[in-house]
Each structure stands twice: as C-alpha cells, then as structure tokens.
Fold each of these.
Amino acid sequence: MGIEAAIPTDNFLTTQLRHVVNWGRRSSLWPMPFATACCGIELMATASSRYDIARFGMERMSFSPRQADLLIVAGRISVKMLPVLQRIYEQMTEPKWVISMGACASTGGVFDTYATVQGVDQFLPVDVYVPGCPPRPEMLLEGVMAIQRYIETEGMPPMNGGKRAPLGVVVEPTHAVNPQPVGLTQS
Ligand code: SF4
C-alpha cells in the first residue's frame, strides 16, 4: 500500500509546529499575583464567576514563582518590598511576562513619597500597563489578551542586545469618567 493510500481523507488537519506551541503558550499563562493593596481586590474579582479568568486558561493563580510565567503587580510597592518583588520575578519560569496593574504600580499613584516606588518599570520589564485606580477586571483581562495576542504571533518575549525588552503596551480605559460628585441636586 502506498503512503497516500494510508493517509485518511478526513478527520485530520495540518499546521505548523510553531502555531501549536504558541497556542499552548498563550492558552496556559499562569499568573503570579503580587497584590499589595486595593487593586488586588479587582484582581481577585477577575477570577470570580462574573469575569472568569479561567476562560483564558489562567485560573491557576500560582503562589510559587517557579511555576508561574505572568507576574501581575497590583498595588503600591514600597522600596523595602522591592527586593522581594525582584527576587520573585527572577525565580519565575522563562519565557515570562509582567503586567503593571493600576496607577500605584505604574507610577506610585498618589503616594509621591520617598518610600514608594514611583513605577515598577524602573526595575522590571513591564509588558502591559493597565491604567486606573483601580482598573476594572475587564481592563486587566484586556491586558492579558494583549500579551496573548503577542505570544500568538511572536511566541517569545522581545530581546534587545541579549537583554529582555519590555513590550510597553498601554491598555485603553474602557469607561468614561463622570464628574464628581454625582447625583446631587443644586439648591
Ligand atoms: S491604584 Fe488606586 S486602587 Fe490601585 S492600589 Fe493604588 S490606590 Fe489602590
């Protein structure tokens, strides 16, 4: 029997190994939550039934950096805490990704003090910035999907001269801000 005759004529498909590997990578990001403040509550809500981060293959929040590849920094980082965050990042599995969630993680937020890190991107290669105080869960999911889209096409994180280069994607806010206070009647 020839090889052609042995190949079934239905129930199979062909693809490239690169596509399959990237599909597996983007469908199994394992987050390492580093939640220090109120943004952490929105991060928890992202795992709840309403937002259901499990739809993206990410329900397995890891509290062991060696079994995680997506660091989500949610909340303000003090200078004293920074070495711990850096060590966790270094212990994570390659290829790894970083999301900076909320104003505090990205810029220090309202905590313009010598004791608060004024943006974790000064110390870590941040791939996605999720703006807000706090950002809504939808926005965090948008940030995750930005990384997934990148993995799908490129696979591995960008490098620059042998050093990890951050993606530097900024998620657009998904809502318009209302002037405050609202619902008060003028006398
Ligand atoms: S950005 Fe706002 S909600 Fe998030 S940790 Fe800072 S103060 Fe809290």
Amino acid sequence: MKALFFEAAKASGLENEEIGQKLIETSARQGRSVIDDLLDSKLINEEDFLRQVAATLGLPYEPDLKPRHSRKLRDVCGAQLALRHRVLPLSLGPMELPPEYIEGEERPAASSLPDVEAPPDAEEAAGKPDRIILATYDPFNLLSKQATSQAIDLPIEWRMASRTRVLHGIQKLYGVGADTFEQILAGREGDTSFMDMKEEVNVLDEDDEEASVVKFVNTILRQALQQRATDIHVEPLENNLRVRYRIDGRLQEVPVPENIKALQSMVIARLKIMARLDIAERRLPQDGRIGLELEGNSIDVRVATIPTVEGEQVSLRLLNQEKFSIQKLGLEPHVRSTIDSLLKMSNGIILITGPTGSGKSTSLYAFLSELNTPFRRIVTVEDPVENKLEGVMQIAVKPEINLTFAAGLRSILRADPNVVMVGEMRDLETAEIAIRAALTGHLVFSTLHTNDAIAGITRLVDMGVEPFLVSASVRAFLAQRLVRRLCKKCRLPVSHDREYLDSIGFPTPKHGGNGQIHMINTRGCDHCNHTGILGRLAIYEIAVLTQGVQDLVVKRATESDIRAKAIEEGFIPMRQYGFKKVLDGETSIEEVISVTTMDMKMIEDFAPTP
Ligand SMILES: [Zn+2]
C-alpha cells in the first residue's frame, strides 16, 4: 500500500522523494490517513494524485460531481454520516426520473437558484432504488466504509474524486453546519446551552464535540470569515431561514440545512445574545457588537436586527482588524508618486470621492497609517469608526447628541492636531471648517459623494464654497472604484477586434503590456470557490489642483473645461488606470467599463488609432 502511494505521489509532482517517503512511512505507522497527510503537505497535485490512486485500484474516477435527486439522497445518506465520514452521495440506481426532473448544470456557488427537485410523486413513480453511488477521496478509510454500509440499507457503489470536490459537494448538498443541525433537531428539547454567554470574546477555533445552536452559529460565522465575507444576513422567509454572505461586494446565498426554519428562533436568539442585545425585545430594531476570534485574529462584528413581518432579521458586518498600508492598495506608479508627494505636505485638503462601497475608507486608513508616527498627532471624526488605528484619536459622530461632523471637527481643531480626517463633507458648514483648518496649517482628509475626481471640484463650489477658497486649500481629488479581481488559475484569455477596443478607449499595444486580455471564467475552479473571482482591487484617478486648474476654478469654469485642462497637464482618467490593470491580467474589460465613464474627447486623447 505504501508503494502504491509513493508511486502515485511520484507521478503527480512529488519533487523530494525522500521527504515524501518519510511522510508516507510516518503517517502509515501512526495509523493516520496517508492520503490526507499527503494532500495537506501540498507536495503533490491533488487531482493527479487521486486520479492515479483510482487508476491503480481500478476505481472509477469522477472529475465532476453532480449529485442527482438531492432530496432523496439526503434521506438515504444523512448529513452526519456524509460529513463525519467524508462521503458524498452521487445518485441512486436505477431510479431513472423523467429528464425535466434531473438537476442540470452544477449549481454555481453564487447562485441562489433553488435546486430543480423531482416532486415526491415522480420519485415514487420511479420505484425503489436498488443501490447508491458514493464518492470518496480516501478508499483506504475502512472505518468510513464500515459505517456507511451499516447505516445505508442499500448496496454501495464507490467512486473516487478529489478531496476538494467531495468536501465542497457535501457542503452544497447538505448546507453549512448540517451535521450539527441534525443532532440539534434530534435532541431539541431542553437545549438551552445557546443562552450561555460567558466570555467577552468568542473564540471560533475551538468547538466542543457536542452539537448545539452555539456550534451551528459558529460554523456560519467561521465559514463566512473563511470565504472573506464582509456581511452575513440571516433572513426569515415564510418557509425558510435564508442565510446570505456578501463576498467581494456580491450577495451569495449560503446552502443551509433543509429544516433550518425549525431552529430560526434559537439561531436568532443566539446571535442576539452574542451581541448582548435584549432577546425579549423583538419588535424594535437593535444594534450591538460581537467580538470574535479566529486563528488568533480578532474580528469586530457590528450587529443590527430588523423586525420584519416574517420575524427578526439579523445583519452582521464583519470588520476585519486589518493592517492598512499604501503598498496594499497596489497603486500604479503615477498615482503612487503623486500620493507620496501629497502626504509630505504639512497642510491642505485631500479629498477622496466615490460612491458608498468603493473602498474610500481603506484608502483613507492607508494614508493615515503612513502618517501615523509618534511625531504627528492624528485626530479623526467618523461615522462610524470602522477600524481602529493604534495611536490615532478617533471620534464617532453622534447626531442624537449633536456631535455632528461639523461639531466634531470644530472641537478637534482645538485639540492641537497635525492631521485631521473627517469622514465626509456632507454640508457647507463642515467644508468651511475643513478649509479653515487647511489654511491654518493642518493636513485634512475627507470624502465627497461625486462620481469622479473633476466633478469633486465643481461639487464643492455647488455646495456654496467660494471658488478661491477651493483653489487655495484643496490639493487633490482622488476618485476610486472597486473592480473584481480575476482568479489567475482559471481566467480565460480573450481577444477583441481593434474597432471595439478603439470605441472604448482601450490603449493600442504600443501603449504597454503584451496585449493579452483576460475575462472571468464563470465556472471558476477549486482555487476560487467556483466563482472565477479572488477579491477586489481599487482603480483610481487623481486630479491635482495645478496652477492651470486653480485658475480655471477661480474663474468658475465648467467641469468639461477643467477636465480638458487637467488632461492637458497629465491627468489620467480612471478608465485608463483600469485598462492598465486589464493588461496586467488582474481584471477584465467588462469590470472596468461597468464602473467608469468616458467622453469622446478622452477616447481621442487616449486611444489614437494607428
Ligand atoms: Zn479560479
């Protein structure tokens, strides 16, 4: 058996034979799963290795796992059995259902489409199955084979598949936390453990063996963090309790156990207890916080409950205590050098523009982190304080006691700061105080709700700020948007004809890059959780108020005149910045176009036809 593993490992990328040999020896001696240990070691290619093992054993290998007749499969092979023994039921034989009842394409993780399920009578009509087909990635796990054959009252046919696909498939078929869930339902009476709330911080790493609502809720939270979700929504529907994660800005429905509705009130009560909310109050919205810990990282969670007609809905926002730095913004050199010189200034206003959810806070925090030294006093007024920065005085606005941006800013200025950040310039009063601060020797950061950098200039004037004050105090407008980052393991190369590229202002090859453009692979791969996407990146444009631009501002020139002047003086619009990232293979043309605009003048300037 050891020789079989060794040969298969050699055939699938094992470089250091000695290390591989030793790993197999140790693992086998300790009675562990050699397959798990080899896969965990990452010394080999998972797919190649398991395919090789299957071939040697003469077991059929399934490259694509698409369970058919999900409901029936879940009945025959319960969640606990599948999860504990890591087997994925694939189909029942011969049970041939009419084609319209058979699930089609593998459901992408992001989809919220319901399973196409055969109605019970169709399954009934198809007769009783005479066998079940199960997928495993470890055919040497005798314990699992024994347990499944004892629990399932049908002959079993085994298939092999990759570990990633089996585990992913189990989660999709049964829903997150399904094993725990089954046990809770079985012993539901008298489970009050979820009422306990001993610790200040909830450590997610350690779950005890016992199934409980606590464990189930922890699974939902842990899963969200592992998938880089920023929000979790637990939403009661008439016949279901829906759980959705927001990942990379998009909502994705989380597969949950079928009968989750039965535990709705307990799940919601547990979340409210964690957030220290009043569980008896179900008619009014409440806000709270949960402190979580996962693998040594602390995660702050803001919790909001909303009473709906179907019951209380709970929204959780996961605030990662991430480290901010300018490097992490991945700025193109022209923006980076402009930012560097702006941050060296001792006074003036730097404004960031963009809609909600365009990553403005991340940029602001990165800039403040860069300036955060013992020699500078940095004070902020924010709504709310999204992330804490060590050594920075941060104030949260509280309109109910009249602590507004303007009031906060006014009091900050009496507290001798060098650098000030005010969350948003929402009104003339705030803008005027900020300008006064800039003119009296402070470096001020803030945000404005406008579409692009140049529009920021006219927006301030429209708010009622005197044009000469804008030109005297504001140093630069930075505009940004987020685009989705392509998974480099599965992105697809694509080519467009020059006519199309010219029409959108895409640079000609001589403007840089090797010209290879990629697009998202909507089927995705194991690396990107079958989404084709790995996070997001920001694209920018920065308009510096040069002398030429300042003159136009004072003359109350139109936005398009100012834009033309800015371009003449080196302003590079966001779309061009985005296209650079397309040429780098980081994102797609479609992503960039969906968040940027461009007028004909800019197209002529940036994509001269050869
Ligand atoms: Zn991928």
